[in-house]
Design goal:
Layout: E1 2-6, H1 10-23, E2 28-33, H2 36-46, E3 51-55, E4 57-58, E5 61-62, H3 64-69, E6 76-80, H4 86-89, E7 94-99, H5 104-120, H6 125-135, E8 142-147, E9 150-155, E10 159-165, E11 168-173, E12 178-181, H7 185-191, E13 197-201, E14 204-207, E15 211-217, E16 221-226, E17 236-237, H8 242-249
InterPro entries: CheY-like_superfamily (IPR011006), LytR-like (IPR046947), LytTR_DNA-bd_dom (IPR007492), Sig_transdc_resp-reg_receiver (IPR001789)
Modified residues (4-aspartylphosphate): 55
Domain HTH LytTR-type: 143-251
């Protein structure tokens, strides 16, 4: 069993490596990475391990940025001091969510869960990943929109961007039509696949296929040129989201 450890605190990484050796003598700790960038680079260069032990808060951001940047299908055991990310974690291949300080019995039970599922799907990693997909929450593929007395079904692939304005949220499709949604933008973001949609600022979620190019803008921000749209402030990537946005575009 090849294991990748993602942990930015050296004492915590050393403790986890020690616990892993105690609870799983057959495990091979192939690498330890400390940042989102290091982990993405390692996965791109080495492929996926059998299992990932992953902290959530890393030096350069939250670990979920890894899943937004590179495709990860390996099972993950999350280890963190924070409990508010549990729901989000189980959307990205999580088989367990351990709160720090992680004890030997906690890790043993999580590894037993991994082995039990792996043995049940003994025909290989493909079957195991299929099971993980069953556990993961599915993202929306369509929105059913009410327009007066009529209804219209819009595929997420027909969405250019979703934006909020004056307390209301609207969906803009590829035909140039805007439709009101009954959800908040925060809720809509949770419904959509982060591989396809990115929250570029407080007011706009954009589909990756709608972006034609990026231009340097004031205060280290980016102005996006969106297909068949005039440049406007709504399409400016917030400064704090620029690094993550670049990684998202450069998959």
């Amino acid at each position: 069993m090849k294991v990748l450890l993602v942990e930015d605190e050296k004492p915590a990484a050393q403790k986890m490596a020690r616990l892993l050796k105690q609870t799983a003598p057959d495990a091979d700790l192939v690498a330890t990475t400390e940042t989102v960038e290091d982990t993405v680079n390692w996965l791109q260069e080495n492929g996926e391990p059998d299992l990932i032990l992953m902290d959530i808060h890393l030096d350069d951001g939250l670990c979920f940025e890894i899943f937004d940047t590179v495709k990860v299908t390996a099972p993950v055991i999350f280890t963190t001091a924070y409990d508010e990310y549990a729901v989000r974690a189980f959307k990205v291949n999580s088989i367990d969510y351990l709160l720090k300080p992680v004890g030997e019995e906690d890790l043993r039970k999580a590894l037993d869960k991994y082995r039990a599922i792996h043995e049940k799907y003994h025909y290989g990693q493909a079957g195991y990943r299929h099971l993980l997909q069953e556990f993961s929450a599915a993202y929306k593929s369509r929105f059913l929109l009410k327009i007066g007395s009529r209804y219209k079904s819009v595929s997420v692939n027909q969405i250019k961007y979703i934006f909020s304005s004056e307390g209301n949220v609207f969906l803009q499709n590829t035909d140039g039509q805007a439709f009101a949604l009954e959800f908040s933008l925060d809720h809509v973001q949770k419904l959509l696949d982060p591989a396809d949609f990115f929250r570029i600022n407080r007011n706009c979620l954009i589909h990756i296929d709608a972006v034609e190019e990026m231009v340097a803008y004031s205060s280290s921000r980016l102005q996006l040129h969106v297909k068949e749209e005039k440049p406007q402030e709504m399409f400016v990537v917030s400064r704090d989201r620029v690094p993550e946005f670049k990684r998202w575009m450069d998959r």
